[in-house]
């Protein structure tokens, strides 16, 4: 709660700054305004030390002074720079990715601390992990002497969120701080200078989308992981004794794709087919004519047609067509294409590819590697980028050729994320080694290919007739290889075909009837898997590689010798088990909807808390259902792991958790019946305890109480379950029976009095906020935070008009 309140303050503070800035900019004396703000020292924070160093080198023309921070991995670079129309001192430092992490509050952290279903409502908080505390302290120390903070993290969703973590930490010690965001796609002098001249406001919507994703991943991941691990370790004690059986809402559909393909292969029944083949040997080579019917599955039918052909086995050339054919040069490179092509052509995994690409980017060799854009922006100077490559002894001559033939003419795609250009080289180098060199070379060659010309060829098709059956053969002559000269990753083979005259007849060398078998689809490659994830909206271009890595490291899948994905027994069993419950959890739909909502949050079109509440509730229902049908999981897994152990009924009940009586009138989380610590008596408690202390302590006169299936028709919010009571003799007014079913929702005046139902008073307007202030679960937050934002300006604007 404290953290949240601080965050609110921070945001309010930020908006005020921005507000005054905009007001200033709208007036005539905008530069005056900036001059009036006494900015003398500016703290800059990049996402990694390498990036901080690269940016500092550019801004200072290599004249920066280096100081140590409290974290030995994150240095401080100091230099003078002309910013906000004046000379300022800049301290450039860095974080190491996310500075804060999200975790459940202490009472829910231990595995056996609560029923996993409670993790959908349990309180969460952001905290600074031990290994980042020194980075946080450096920021707190440095920001003291600064009047402004400029966020230089990577310009994508995670980067924006990391930016807000930095802002929160810095604002907490310096509330008057002015905050700006640098937007850039590459660490090159032009790009960095432009970013300094057009500083903008950080985008809270983009950061919010990450917060939502983090919280959902934590709740969904932890609840399912604890549930299935604890249960399956008991059911298969020998096989799974110490195994963590993790669950993630992205990871699972990813596994689902692998299993689905494997099952398609298993279910495949090969069929025999038959076809007629015509061969013609000539002085100019051997020609293979293929049948227009392709193939037949009926042997007799094929045989009849074959016999007709053999009655007069002479071919008549009925048509010869000849037309130009081109092979298209590649589209500008986006992240998904880079991952797929590197995996296919260079045999470098997606994870490794992104790691190397990040490094090449922070060193200034390539533009930002996380992009969905495959069209070049008009203002990008492609000519100078091509020029940079002309000195190379492998592709320099080709680059020179592009310039001599009228300059770059890129082929463009249709995707544009409005944030980053396609991946392209930004600096020439010949000093790289190993896979770094191979990937850089690939990016350069791809870029040059894209900027050149399609390959041109000439295709010839010869159609012939033998006994009314039609056959054809193709030939290809390559006229200009063009982009293929620089792009060895594509193949285009010429195929010689002799000259045939229309109307002429010839005797084929052979006419044969051959048979074959249909073959199953192949197991998925990494490139196939990435394509499927992209198609179905699982993860983002930034996370595909991580999800694939996770299912590998959990041993849910393995790789065959030719690098294809094969599901393991545990992976198979889990997918089959959950699918048999009817929720299709291994199918992509559930997660894809979430991913689409996150996009809307990042665009400011949907509210953070509404989206969070909706998906928490949806996954919670799926979870409750999964626990109820958990036996199906045991059954599916026992096909792979051997006999499933039976659990005693009370263990089953315990796993399901206590049935919900009603929603808490104070925080709207579930209320359940619990046994008192001493085992004597029962009470109704909110699962939000300890942050919500709403509870009904039944008096000693109540001997037994349990939930009835009947639901009260008047009490709200629906449903309020009735309770079955058993009272002590003599404790009730004489005419009341000692055992009855009653409602504690407030509709029953007598019961209200007998039980002294104070908890209801907390509901509605004017309720004492006895526990409200200490409750910070997401539902509670949403009640008072979920109102229209009074932001002054929805669109980011330039923070400073220059000089
Ligand atoms: Zn409550
Ligand atoms: Zn009622």
From TrEMBL:
One Gene Ontology cellular component annotation held by this UniProt entry: nucleus
Residue ranges of every copy of the Toprim domain listed in the record: 41-185
Pfam families according to UniProt: Topoisom_bac, Toprim, Zn_ribbon_Top1
Reported cofactor(s): Mg(2+)
Low complexity biased stretches: 767-777
Catalytic function, reaction form: ATP-independent breakage of single-stranded DNA, followed by passage and rejoining
Name of the protein in its database record: DNA topoisomerase
Family note: Belongs to the type IA topoisomerase family.
The organism of origin for this protein: Lepisosteus oculatus (Spotted gar)
Family matches, as InterPro entries: Topo_IA, Topo_IA_2, Topo_IA_AS, Topo_IA_cen, Topo_IA_cen_sub1, Topo_IA_cen_sub2, Topo_IA_cen_sub3, Topo_IA_core_domain
Organism lineage: Eukaryota, Metazoa, Chordata, Craniata, Vertebrata
Principal EC category: isomerase
Compartment(s): Mitochondrion matrix
Subunit structure: Binds ssDNA. Interacts (via N-terminal region) with BLM; the interaction is direct. Directly interacts with RMI1. Component of the RMI complex, containing at least TOP3A, RMI1 and RMI2. The RMI complex interacts with BLM.
GO annotation terms (biological process): DNA recombination; DNA repair; DNA topological change
EC number: 5.6.2.1
UniProt-recorded Gene Ontology molecular function terms: DNA binding; DNA topoisomerase type I (single strand cut, ATP-independent) activity; zinc ion binding
Domain Topo IA-type catalytic: 203-623
Cited function: Introduces a single-strand break via transesterification at a target site in duplex DNA. Releases the supercoiling and torsional tension of DNA introduced during the DNA replication and transcription by transiently cleaving and rejoining one strand of the DNA duplex. The scissile phosphodiester is attacked by the catalytic tyrosine of the enzyme, resulting in the formation of a DNA-(5'-phosphotyrosyl)-enzyme intermediate and the expulsion of a 3'-OH DNA strand.
Region of interest called Disordered, as start-end residue ranges on this chain: 408-430, 767-803
SMART domains assigned to the protein according to its UniProt record, in alphabetical order: TOP1Ac, TOP1Bc, TOPRIM
Record keywords: DNA-binding, Isomerase, Magnesium, Metal-binding, Mitochondrion, Repeat, Topoisomerase, Zinc, Zinc-finger
Coiled-coil intervals: none
